[in-house]
Design goal:
Strands 3-2-1-4-5-7-6 form a seven-stranded mixed beta sheet, with helices on both faces. Helices cover about 30% and strands about 20% of the residues. The protein has seven helices and seven strands, in the order ααβαβαββαβααββ.
Length: about 240
């Protein structure tokens, strides 16, 4: 079993915590469960995760270690573990409430999972995982919550440092389009599908960085190349490769 270190690492939240950047109360067990229930009802999740798995170069019976960054209740990692029965995963999240949900929800993979409570806004927070032997890192709608481009670039660099060569990073997340008009158009479509979001029309979302910015950040973080092989409105599948 994967052993990144001899004990579970818990990092105290410093001056840059997620509460400073958004409205989510990730430390609340009730809020975390409510968020999980909303996420599980998303009809597009299968399409998104399927697009991600199609990028993986592994054989079905191959053993590899993956890190799920900002894992929440572990949905992305579980999707991969289901399809690769010899794979193992490290679930990284700064919310103990979310990690508790993951232990509850992903019992089918209990022997293939370990849990790390880590605050991504802390410098060098992923260093304990550099010895874990991970060749894949994934993340789903999590890293943008840091909001600060410098913090996000720091996480990208730490992920690259943790990955073996070759290593692969799949980040499914919200990013700005390269044109303001596109962001406003996507907001209008969102409101048409969900009238409760009508107040967002005419306002550019506060996602950190455009698609072009994100690819540049990944390239500057130790990855050899990066691309966006799948996109739907602001939701983008960022794919970065270390080595070949």
């Amino acid at each position: 079993m994967i052993q990144p270190d001899q004990h579970e690492h818990t990092h105290e939240h410093g001056p840059h915590t997620h509460e400073h950047h958004d409205h989510h109360d990730w430390h609340s067990a009730a809020y975390s469960r409510e968020w999980m229930d909303r996420w599980e009802r998303r009809p597009s999740r299968e399409e998104q995760f399927s697009a991600a798995v199609k990028l993986l170069p592994f054989q079905q019976d191959e053993h590899f270690v993956l890190m799920d960054i900002g894992a929440g209740f572990g949905a992305f990692a579980a999707y991969i573990l289901e399809r690769y029965p010899k794979a193992e995963a490290i679930l990284v999240d700064y919310s103990q409430a979310m990690l508790d949900l993951a232990k509850e929800q992903q019992q089918a993979y209990a022997g293939r999972l370990i849990y790390e409570q880590i605050d991504l806004s802390s410098p060098h927070c992923l260093e304990p995982l550099q010895s874990a032997g991970a060749s894949l890192a994934v993340s789903a709608i999590a890293i943008h919550n840091l909001r600060d481009p410098q913090l996000i670039q720091g996480v990208y660099a730490q992920v690259a440092a943790c990955l073996q060569t070759p290593g692969y990073f799949i980040n499914l997340d919200y990013v700005l389009a390269n044109q303001r008009e596109a962001d406003l158009y996507y907001r209008k479509l969102e409101a048409m599908a969900d009238p409760s979001k009508a107040d967002r029309v005419g306002r550019v979302p506060n996602f950190p960085g455009t698609a072009r910015d994100q690819l540049q950040w990944l390239a500057a973080s130790g990855f050899d190349w990066a691309d966006i092989p799948w996109k739907q409105g602001p939701l983008s599948l960022l794919f970065a490769v270390k080595g070949s």
